[in-house]
From TrEMBL:
Signal peptide location: none
Residue ranges annotated for the Pyridoxamine 5'-phosphate oxidase N-terminal domain, each copy included: 5-124
Gene3D superfamilies: Electron Transport, Fmn-binding Protein, Chain A (2.30.110.10)
Name used for this protein in its record: General stress protein 26 (GSP26)
Lineage top rank: taxon: Bacteria
Pfam families attached to this UniProt entry: PNPOx_N
Organism: Listeria fleischmannii 1991
InterPro entries: Pyridox_Oxase_N, Split_barrel_FMN-bd, Stress-Dev_Protein
PANTHER family xref list: PROTEIN BLI-3
Length: 139
């Protein structure tokens, strides 16, 4: 069952790169669209260290990411990805993410370019017509 569930999750991650990441700002959720890449079930995204999300995750590294549903089909699968963020230090991974990134907003040569690594803790996949999501607990 777990392998089949992981495959369904990976299919969503393979098909969708844009998602919404929510962190906590002043005790309230703070959401923004971001581009995500993945290696297995681990997500990666790029940012600058001058942006508010860096301070937000320094205070509370737990985030929630919605990725998948794009409004085109009511029965589209999407995932709710709960995880913990760390700043990626591995230069090979940073370079790999940079190569995949096609962004008007970020440039790897900009001061403060960072790659965030989101380590999964729980992933829920919503796949209609099922009424309840299937849950992959990774803690």
């Amino acid at each position: 069952m777990r392998n089949e569930l992981e495959e369904r999750i990976l299919n969503v991650l393979d098909a969708h790169k844009i998602g919404v990441m929510a962190s906590v700002k002043n005790k309230f959720p703070h959401a923004r669209y971001m581009t995500f890449f993945h290696k297995g079930l681990t997500l990666y995204t790029a940012t600058l260290d001058t942006l508010p999300k860096i301070d937000e995750i320094a205070r509370n590294p737990h985030v929630c990411i919605l990725i998948g549903y794009e409004g085109e089909q009511v029965k589209s699968a999407f995932i709710e990805f709960n995880g913990r963020v760390v700043i990626e230090e591995n230069e090979a991974i940073i370079e790999e993410i940079w190569e995949k990134l096609d962004s008007e907003w970020l440039d790897k040569t900009q001061a403060g370019f960072k790659v965030l690594k989101i380590i999964p803790e729980e992933i829920r996949i919503f796949d209609l017509p099922a009424e309840e999501p299937d849950v992959l607990d990774l803690i």
